[in-house]
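Subject: Protein entry, chain in single-letter code together with its fold tokens

Category: Structural biology, sequence-to-fold work with a learned token vocabulary.

Notation: Tokens come from a learned vocabulary of local backbone shapes, not from coordinates.

Start of record: The labelled sequence and token lines come straight after this line.
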Amino acid sequence: MQPIDTWYRIRKESDVDSPALLVFPERIKQNIALLKSMIDDPKRLRPHVKTHKTKEILQLQLDAGITKFKCATLAEAEMLGECGTPDVLLAYPLYGPKLSLFLSLKQKFPKTKFSAIVDHPEAADALSAAAVQEGTLVDVYVDLNIGMGRTGIEPGAEALALYRQCGQLEGLAIQGFHAYDGHVHERDVEKRKVICARNFEAVDQLMQQVQQAGFPKPRVVIGGSPSFPVYAVYPDVECSPGTFVLWDKGYADGLPDQPFLPAAVLLTRIVSMPDVNRLCVDLGHKAVAAENPLERRVYFLNAPDLKPISQSEEHLVLEAPSGHSWKVGDVLYGLPYHICPTVALYNYLMVIEQGTYVGRWAVASRNRLSKVNDL
């Protein structure tokens, strides 16, 4: 027997084709309000937009008084500029064509203050040369590797030298440090605090060293969703959670200390029953993030006893218990375990208010290339 209706269900399911990603604005607003309540000053918030990539959700954050944002792609940076965002940090290395395209964004949206990261002397030289050629000044942050091992320079003498270099190069205005710790996923918040304190120690030492070298006190942009509650109580740092706005099953399970609400739900339909206890739904690799093991891709809110058996591009096969009552055409509602890459699979988010489909929001910056490529 299926569970009774709850918050995620649509009264008229025939209004929405499947697969679809539903979003719930009232829950999004509650998540934004909760985020603001977890920090002493909203000016220290710099949310990442990679989770939603959507102008309407960005506008909800702007309306709530959040003015600084972080992004990972030129398309996301362009979306932020189009919405008149005051302060944008593109937290991704700039090489090749990205250098001129980034500078084109600065020219196209003069009311938005764009800044970039560098983690290598050659990157600093290249950005400096491009900025000088365009006759502009670029705010930069030195990107630190505090354990993620993905981008960034390790804190220490070389990082200090890079900071000095950025402070001397024409066309660059050194602002501070950027440090992302996406490798920190400790479920126990007290243990998480210890890990974050250890990671921040090296950053703090660098902060003192650059000031001793005659630089102003550097700004620090640090952390992601797991470490946000930890760094929220650190003075003078900017925090960059992203997933909070929509939340997902992965973080809901792994971060019980953060009571954000799931605000995005996958809608899928049973399209076939190849066996009496096997159901096939239209939720393939193209409809839900598939980097996790099969059992950690989607959790069905109205069918938690269904077990994933296999998945391909357009299909997900599920095993149902004996005596089930599911039939072809029935709708399942699922929480993705990883919402960020799931959003990137959809052109539109289907907006649900009070159980009714009311329209759709374009995932404006899901494309890899921004429109500045056409300039």
